Amino acid sequence: MQTSREPVTSGVVDSQAIDLRAVQSQVDAVLDGFLAGKACAAAGRGHPPEVVQTVRDFLAAGGKRIRAQLCVVGWHAAGGQGDATSALRVAAALELFVAFALIHDDIMDDSARRRGRPAVHRALRARLGADERAERLGAGGALLVGNLALMWAQELLHTAQLEPGRQRLVHGLFDAMLEEVMYGQYLDVMGTGCGADDVEAALRIIRYKTAGATVERPLQLGAAVAGAGAAEMEVLTRLGLPLGEAFQLRDDLLDVFGGPDGVCAPGSGDLREGKRTVLLALGLRRAGRVERERLVRLVGRADLAERGAAEARRILRDTGARERTEQMITSRYEEVLQVLDGAGFPQAVDRALRDLAVTATRYTS
Amino acid sequence: MQTSREPVTSGVVDSQAIDLRAVQSQVDAVLDGFLAGKACAAAGRGHPPEVVQTVRDFLAAGGKRIRAQLCVVGWHAAGGQGDATSALRVAAALELFVAFALIHDDIMDDSARRRGRPAVHRALRARLGADERAERLGAGGALLVGNLALMWAQELLHTAQLEPGRQRLVHGLFDAMLEEVMYGQYLDVMGTGCGADDVEAALRIIRYKTAGATVERPLQLGAAVAGAGAAEMEVLTRLGLPLGEAFQLRDDLLDVFGGPDGVCAPGSGDLREGKRTVLLALGLRRAGRVERERLVRLVGRADLAERGAAEARRILRDTGARERTEQMITSRYEEVLQVLDGAGFPQAVDRALRDLAVTATRYTS
Fold first, then answer.
1. How far is A340 from chain B (nearest CA, A)?
2. What is the spatial distance between Cα B271 and Cα B213, in angstroms, rounded to a whole number?
3. A275, B27, B151, B355: which could form a disulfide with B68 (CB 3.0–4.6 Å)?
4. How far are the Cα atoms of A107, A125, B331 from residue A112, in angstroms, in the given order?
5. Beta strands of chain A (E only): which ranges?
6. What does the pLDDT read at residue A322?
7. What pLDDT is recorded for position A302?
């Protein structure tokens, strides 16, 4: 098992390529080691073992560790090489942050499943059996497990053995990221005060809730570990924001329409939940009166059946909302390529970022 | 307004006394300055202003800042003097942590009120008006506001301008405290697997959920800012744990019976919620079959009326559970005095701790 004491080089196999799959394994090894320590400490103190186990299961159930990979790529982009221990620890912190955010998201939306398993609050509810308070207590338990994942993310940063200046930079970026995501979620939950057909408002939610935390901040956090300056950080922002937005726009399309090649089945999670996506805003904006009223009536219904979902899909297609979303992804992807053309990154970094850009804008989950 | 840049001496007016009231104002000034910065940043970025305002209102509504005071006393106990900026920042972080914990607690218990106002999730629910999803969304909004309070607590620590060794110590203590509280809450919410009459289990919840975070960790955090060693930390543990337990036992008594001199009215929050207090465990353990069954039937009912609450109170009194809880407080208070007698703290520190011990074991809220 990987501990933070042994120096670990990152997945750069040669100057031409970064082995992203190897990075993923290394990050998982850091998470395994850290959580094994937590399990051991919990056993020694009589804490319930299922808390750590729940976090482990959540991580084991899936996730492509794309933020962790971006963090290590950002580290290389800023000249990081040799011992990658600190970069991997920060990368692992990002994955615990994702676990926190998703566990809390699922409570807020009362989602039934996540990564092919029951969502954490549903699993804890089931564990409580016939207790009439099971729904409330299960949500409470999941809230606390999510909180612990966030606290452990911070603990990973606090013990990343960074030199003080870089630690300050890492903390500043991480704290800014957390705040952005919370504000984005807050707008999402409590409403923007704008209509559901407000494309700009929907884009603003994406910008805060996803774009920064998915691509820009992970890249910058890795770069901060390598001691990047303001100019390097700015390039990563110019690259990260459009890529993060494209990532989310693709995610929204996949949720409603499934993958174009049948890899993902179309679902109706976002439609049922009435998620204020750019796709939906475009559909509402472009629809005629009758179809618009129909769409308003269909989305946000917890009991939306497949027939209703199919009708919503048809409206989103016929109005051109789907097509327009595809165009928005393409223009962002092209913007990313343009930034990469001018960035002058080492070849291995450039190639890894181009690969990640394709992955993020084509298939995500 | 106090900013973190100007050196601030703490509330020590002379070698004989620490002015705890002055400490409270200084901590509030740090919080005001920090949150004013957050409000300003939110305005600049188009974030909804009500998030910062909600946290400010929560802090303004009350709270005695006892943890913040203990932090500054701990700093003095370990020889801290002169510029108290860092100690006050850590103290302020503790108060934001308390805000986080209470906001989340109120969601989990669906408490109606806190500090004389509607609980945050209830206030946000009301703001959403007739929306049928208002209950779920209000809870979601409060969850996010609570998360931000926690994140801002960490940010206060990250920017406390501590020298690296002390910062590591402060982070280690803070992270340990957060983890303990979450585990304690988890036991509280999901059950200990032991009966509600298990006094030891109820004490274990107190130990994790309250005793550390209320007294021990705040004292140690302040001491860490002053660079305390292991021996000093250990004295603060021996002092802090019994005082923290006494504090919680008193809080439980006040919730059910009110203050002995009528300062607090008896409520029935803990009884309605079925909170697994030591008081309740003692009552169940000591009651005969009939009264035990009666007590089981009464507690944990959201619709418990004053008549039922009065009956539960009578059983808790008649079984001697109330009296036994009083004895447990007294023995812990005496333990605290004994530790203080041998601790050899400077006179001002000793006096402040004796004052806080009286406050914490007599009247709390």
1. 27
2. 24
3. B27
4. 9, 11, 49
5. 12-14, 17-18, 113-114, 117-118
6. 96
7. 82
User: Do B225 and B90 meet the contact criterion of CB atoms below 8 Å apart?
Assistant: yes
Whether the Cβ atoms of residue A208 and residue A69 lie closer than 8 Å to each other: no
Helix (H, G, I), strand (E, B) or coil at A26: helix
Chain B contacts in chain A segment 172-231 (CB below 8 A): 172, 175, 178-179, 182-183, 185-187, 189-191, 204, 208
Model pLDDT, residue B7 = 61
**Contact (CB, 8 A) for A84 and A92:** no
* A46 and chain B in contact, CB less than 8 A: yes
Q: Is the pLDDT of residue B112 over 60?
A: yes
Give the mean pLDDT of chain A. 91
Greatest mean pLDDT range, A79-93, B104-118, B300-314: A79-93
Between B120-127 and B50-60, two packed helices, what is the crossing angle to 10 degrees?
A: 140
Closest Cα in chain A, distance from residue B99 (Å): 14
Alpha helix stretches (DSSP H) within chain B:
20-45, 50-60, 66-77, 85-109, 120-127, 134-158, 164-190, 199-206, 217-225, 230-257, 269-273, 278-286, 289-298, 306-318, 321-343, 347-362
Helix axes A120-127, A85-109, angle to 10 degrees: 60
Query: Is residue B115 classed as helix, strand or coil in its secondary structure?
Result: coil
Please list the residues that pair with B113 across neighbouring strands.
B118
**Does the distance separating the beta carbons of B154 and A154 come in below 8 Å?**
yes
- Indicate whether B264 pLDDT > 80: no
Average pLDDT over residues B98-112: 94
pLDDT of residue B1: 41
- Angstrom distance (rounded) from CA B33 to CA B177: 25
**Cα separations (Å) of A107 from A143, B121, B138?**
7, 14, 12
